[in-house]
Amino acid sequence: PGTYREKVTVPATKTHLVLRGADAATTIISYADHVGMPGITTPTSYSVLVQANDFTAENVTIANTAGYTAGQAVALNVEGDRAHFRHCRLVGDQDVLLLATAGSRQYYQDCYIEGTTDFIFGASIGVFDHCVIKSKKNSFVTAASTPAGQAYGFVFLDCTLTADTALAKKVYLGRPWRPHAQVVYLRCELGGHIAPAGWDNWKNAANEKTAYYAEYHATGPGANPTARVPWARQLTAKEAKKYTLKRVFDGKEAWVPGR
Questions:
Q1: Please, is 237 exposed, middle or buried when counting C-beta atoms within 10 Å of its C-beta (0-12, 13-18, 19+)?
Q2: Could you say which of 33, 81, 93, 118 is catalytic?
Q3: pLDDT in tens, 85-103
């Protein structure tokens, strides 16, 4: 345990690394870089960067403490393939978790993720399984940049979306950072902070024709299928069956992360 104020990189050569803390509440890696600083871009503002394949982290908090006025300030940037985060806390404000690389497969299991704007974003294939996703102000949970032709983007399975009730009263499930953004929420519990429209087109109606936004069997006060934007989808039971770990993570080398 302890708080480690440092910028951590796991280089591509360090494959199969396991980062295991005693408990996420007491094992904290924290830094405060942000885009307002000289030479820092959104991707390089990370507190932790994972470039290696087959990385696993358990029971750790990864934080960016730059604050909500700092603009983009990434806590975790994952470029490698087959990354597995279990019982981790990812905390910050804008742009907290960058799933950076097209085709990269990332699995977030029983994690807690909080932020303000577009705090889960990027091009990778990401599955969020039984995670708690907390919005800290009125904004957008996801900003996917899924490339055209990639079968999956972000998939939320049995997650709970909560909010800071004083500051977050109108939050959208996602907006498309790139035209072919793909985000699907299956069996998620949505708090009353989720806007009835559900999704936003990022001020570009053309995105409505290309983005793939869907829900299946949402519950909670924020579940409002009839009020959703007409270009979003409600999945059928048959369509929902496509979203198994085996199918989502199928690639050149099949990967089913250890439970």
A1: exposed
A2: 118
A3: 999 999 999 999 999 999 9
What is the mean pLDDT of the segment spanning 21-42? 98
The pair of structure tokens assigned to 182 is: 């793909």
Q: Which domain holds residue 178?
A: 102-249
Residues 117 and 210 in one domain: yes
Tell me whether residue 81 is one of the annotated catalytic residues. no
- 200 among known catalytic residues: no
**Closest-CA residue to 85 (of 116, 124, 35):** 124
Report the distance separating Cα 7 and Cα 113, nearest Å.
19
What token pair was written down for 5?
């104020």
According to DSSP, residue 219 is labeled B
Instruction: Report if pTM > 0.90.
Output: yes
Number of structural domains found in the chain: 2
What are 128-160's pLDDT values in tens digits? 999 999 999 999 999 999 999 999 999 999 999
Tell me whether residue 254 is in a domain. no
Single out the catalytic residue among 33, 93, 95, 200.
95
Centre a 10 Å sphere on the Cβ of residue 255 and count the other Cβ atoms it contains.
Answer: 18
